[in-house]
Amino acid sequence: MSASTATPHSAPLFTGRSRLLRLGPVAARVDMRAALITLALVVAALGFAWWNLLTGSSAFGAAEALGAFVGQTDEATSRVILEWRLPRIVFCLLGGAALGIAGAVFQSITRNPLGSPDIIGFGTGAYTGALVVALLGASGMWMTPLGAIIGGTVTGIAIYFLAWKGGVSGMRIILIGIGMTILLDAVNTYLITTMDLQVALTAATWGAGSVSDIAWMHVIPLGLAAALVVPVLIAKQRDLTLMEMGDDPARGLGIRTEGVRLLMVLGAIILVALTTAAAGPIAFVALVAPQLALRLTRSSTVQIIPAAAMGAVLLSVSDLITRLDLLPVQPPVGVVTLSLGGAYLIWLLIGFGRKKAS
Hints:
Blueprint: E1 18-23, E2 26-31, H1 32-54, H2 62-69, H3 75-110, H4 117-120, H5 122-135, H6 143-162, H7 170-193, H8 197-207, H9 216-235, H10 237-243, H11 247-252, H12 257-279, H13 285-297, H14 304-322, H15 333-357
Antiparallel strand pairs: 1-2
Helix pairs in contact: 1-3, 1-14, 2-3, 3-9, 3-12, 3-13, 3-14, 5-6, 5-7, 5-12, 6-7, 6-12, 9-12, 13-14, 14-15
């Protein structure tokens, strides 16, 4: 069969109205509206990132910023731009994309717009892991991230297996995840009250979600993980979309439903855990990004690539808001995403209520 012939398992980049595009021996169906919207979101994310690079306590012009990249500016300017601001900006792009992808995966698995890592409790579990490390007095720059990764991963695996009953139901994942979130919130509150005051303040700041101390050592692991995990998730996107019709029809098409579901969950957990390990739990990006991308692209289901682009936009915009001196004290980026996400969640629930009333 030729490369340009579509097969039942050939994965389009998007769903919806599509065109067959060829690049040499490779052919793929692309939803043109979704592709253009995604391209616009990528351009917007890069634009906000550039604005963020120039904005701050020390404002720079475009010429100074470009000069830092080519080594034609003074050492102080280069340090601020390349060592302090650029890692934070790149992390917002990567971390926002990672959260958007994780949200798209979980919303597709649960078949519910509320099925995101925020609601299900993976971020809360990562926070618990970090608090346990702090309470044990473990030191070193890698201990808190390691504790967060372990906490988020253990929480994700526990929720998955607690939801297992001859298979995994999306609603069971959400309900068990909400219960786990409530339980871990209580545990986290107790752990903070038992800590030394200074340690508790540090833990609380980290728990609010902050990118102010991001360095290249935080960006590189996330970038490497994304390079390995994201292509796998994109490759399995079509299988996951077909599974939204139900496991039995998907099995009839030859899809190993539980294997695909477990692979996608693990990939999403890795992305959330690494993002949380570096910046703390950043709320609501994973919840909001897939749904906003869905409404813009008018696709039939949430998609990984548009959700990634929207996540990058949301986190970059939120970080920019924290640095525009709109408030007397610069808030953590998690406070901004929490405010935006809370407003979105209220709007979403009002929409559900109107649909039921009509």
